[in-house]
Amino acid sequence: MHDIHQVTTGAQLADTRSLMRDFVAWHRERHVEDLALIDRYFDAAEFERELAGLPGKYAPDRGTLLIAYADGQPAGCVAMRDLGGGFCEMKRMFVPGAFRGRGIGRALAGRVIADATSAGYRAMRLDTSRRQDEAMRLYESLGFRRIEPYYALTDDLRDWLVFFERPL
């Protein structure tokens, strides 16, 4: 059993920051052949500024920052931010290995999609690395379709990332 909460308390913020740091560490451990790309995508100084300022760009009413708990432990997180023009972006979706296979990622994605719909967005976008097969299968099962990049990036990052969009 798991519960999903809008991040509002100091303890929830601390747990979310920890999960987001674990997300980057997981990338580095799982995709050692992509370390240079991971370090560019998750610029350390910029990432720490984002974490220190949470909820920041993910604050309501145009954003959301969610955390899942299972068995009393932080079990996943996801965020959503405004991109303008009726678009929002899902960010920082992560479920630690010990909690995978319980439907937590699907539940977090469903909740963030519902929040985006309630906020009046017309579509949700996201990016993920090409090596995240499980994530891509989840996103496609939720109605996301591959699209061209929706922001400027270098050719090597363009080859490393996959972009998705889902109408709301």
What does it look like?
It is globular, with a radius of gyration of 15 Å. It has a single domain, classed as 3-Layer(aba) Sandwich (Aminopeptidase). It is 40% helix and 29% strand. Strand 2 and strand 3 form a beta hairpin. The protein contains 6 helices and 7 strands, in the order E-H-H-H-E-E-E-H-E-H-E-H-E. Strands 1-2-3-4-5-7-6 form a 7-stranded mixed β-sheet, sandwiched between helices. The protein is of the alpha+beta class and 168 residues long.
Reported by name, the CATH topology is Aminopeptidase
Query: Residue share in helices?
Result: 25-40%
What is the CA-based Rg, rounded? 15 Å
By CATH reckoning, the class would read Alpha Beta
- What CATH architecture label applies? 3-Layer(aba) Sandwich
Oligomer: single chain
* Order of H and E elements: EHHHEEEHEHEHE
Percent in strands: 25-35%
Lateral strand order in the biggest sheet: 1-2-3-4-5-7-6
Mean pLDDT: 96
Number of strands: 7
N- to C-terminal separation? 27 Å
> What structural class results from the helix and strand content?
alpha+beta
Question: Given the structure, what is the number of helices?
Answer: 6
List unreliable stretches of 5+ residues.
none
Q: What's the domain count?
A: 1
| Rough outline | globular
Fourth-level CATH superfamily: Gcn5-related N-acetyltransferase (GNAT)
For the biggest sheet, the summary is:
7 strands, mixed
